[in-house]
Design brief:
By secondary structure, this protein is of the alpha/beta class. It has two domains: about 180 residues, 3-Layer(aba) Sandwich (Rossmann fold), CATH 3.40.50; about 210 residues, Rossmann fold (3-Layer(aba) Sandwich). The protein has 15 helices and 21 strands. A hairpin with a 6-residue loop joins β6 and β7. The radius of gyration is 25 Å and the shape is elongated.
């Protein structure tokens, strides 16, 4: 999938070509991208937020002056939490606003706050496109680094007039998105990262072990997301059933002590993300032979001893990475416990999640996390583990830049 894990913010403005944006959403998602739609009032005259939301599989953003929407995500986050902003269709009016820095609705405010690449697919009547005012705006926008796809020659949907003004077809727009994202510098190029993932297995005897329910999905997704941004990633994984991510060096270990050894061997690194559900304890003296049950004997008592804390070791290491991130799997007081962990383990961020059985997070495919740092707490919405990974990778890149 060519756009795997890419986050596209799609701004739909009010032209008849908006009907093509529905297909565009499908095409982008087919290629692995996630699409967050923003619609102008004009766009809502042509396609419904219901249709756009159904195809994008998430919330559609329409309001700037809504307390609920601003508190939920807000225009600044909309502008930042993406890899690319795509305006399709872009009306003459929205382009005029962009060229002049107007920000009186959500779409224009997002565009003014944007620090990501912006690709515009204009659609308008050929006379409007040829108007000197539009030409001036397009020149200004190009000078500001805004990229264009189209408009194309063809017949206008509403008037039958022919000329330059038709919006590029969805697949042409997708190709332009891919070309633009491929050509972008990767923000983590030249950086190294260590990620731990999965559970550890602590032997009781040669056939039995202590384990936990971690699937490794979140840690593996983070390793892949860091690699996608150009980092050279060493993934130290406990025993899992999912495949090694592509583009990452994966080392397989069983126990916490082996995991620590592999992590220390991979230092120095710029980034450490410790996602593994490391067993806190191991059996003090695991048996070399299988423990046999003998008639009349009491069940064996397992004497446990503490495992090394890998995150804490890395967080206080002489070669501590510039960014150290830990996870906090909690079933109660998620924030308080997360904050305490931040301090104790020497991390820059703790990704805290509630793993109570009813959340289905442990072993599941979705995650709902709070990012705890010295600066405060940021609660992310319910996301797929891949989306959590992509956001985390982008956050790390921001922190290092
Ligand atoms: N961790 C680690 N080594 C350990 C235990 C935990 O590296 N021996 C890391 C995990 O990878 C995770 C973080 O520490 O990033 C938090 O782990 P968690 O088990 O939730 O916290 P604990 O410190 O074990 O605290 P508690 O068991 O009291 O929740």
């Amino acid at each position: 999938m060519t756009l795997k894990d890419k986050r596209i913010l799609l701004i739909i403005s009010g032209g008849i070509a908006a009907y093509k944006s529905l297909d565009l959403i499908r095409r982008l998602r087919e290629r692995g991208a996630s699409v967050r739609p923003v619609m102008t009032k004009g766009a809502e005259e042509f396609v419904t937020p219901l249709a756009v939301g159904a195809l994008s599989g998430g919330k559609v953003f329409t309001e700037l002056f809504s307390r609920e929407e601003e508190q939920d995500v807000g225009h600044i986050r909309l502008a930042r939490e993406c890899d690319l902003i795509l305006v399709a269709p872009a009306t003459a009016d929205l382009m005029a606003k962009m060229a002049n820095g107007l920000a009186n609705d959500l779409a224009s405010a997002v565009l003014l706050a944007a620090d990501r690449p912006v690709l515009v697919a204009p659609a308008m009547n050929p006379k409007m496109w040829a108007n000197r005012a539009t030409e001036r705006n397009v020149e200004t926008l190009k000078g500001d680094g805004i990229r264009f796809i189209g408009p194309m020659k063809g017949e206008m949907a509403e008037s039958g007039e022919a000329g330059l003004g038709r919006m590029a077809e969805p697949l042409e727009i997708v190709a332009a998105v891919e070309a633009l994202l491929d050509g972008l510098p990767k923000p983590l190029a030249g950086r190294t990262a260590i990620v731990t993932s999965g559970p550890t297995h602590e032997p009781i005897d040669p056939v039995r072990y202590i384990a936990n329910r971690s699937s490794g999905r979140q840690g593996h997704a983070i390793a892949a997301a860091l690699a996608a941004l150009g980092a050279e990633v060493t993934l130290v994984s406990g025993p899992v059933t999912i495949p090694d991510p592509a583009g990452v060096t994966t080392q397989h270990v069983e126990t916490a002590r082996e995991m620590l050894e592999a992590v220390e061997a991979a230092l120095p690194a710029d980034i450490a993300v410790m996602v593994a559900a490391v067993a806190d304890w191991r059996v003090a003296a695991s048996a070399d032979e299988k423990i046999k049950k003998k008639p009349g004997d009491a069940p064996p008592a397992l004497q446990l001893t503490e495992n090394p804390d890998i995150l804490k070791t890395v967080g206080h290491h002489a070669r501590r990475p510039a960014v150290v991130i830990g996870f906090a799997a909690e079933t109660q007081d998620v924030e308080t416990n997360g904050r305490a962990k931040l301090e104790r383990k020497g991390a820059d961020f703790i990704v805290a999640n509630d793993v109570s059985p009813e959340t289905g997070i442990m072993g599941g495919t979705r995650n709902s996390v709070k990012i705890i740092s010295a600066g405060g707490v940021d609660a992310w919405p319910d996301l797929s583990k891949e989306d959590v990974a992509a956001r985390l990778a982008a956050m790390i890149a921001d922190r290092l830049s």
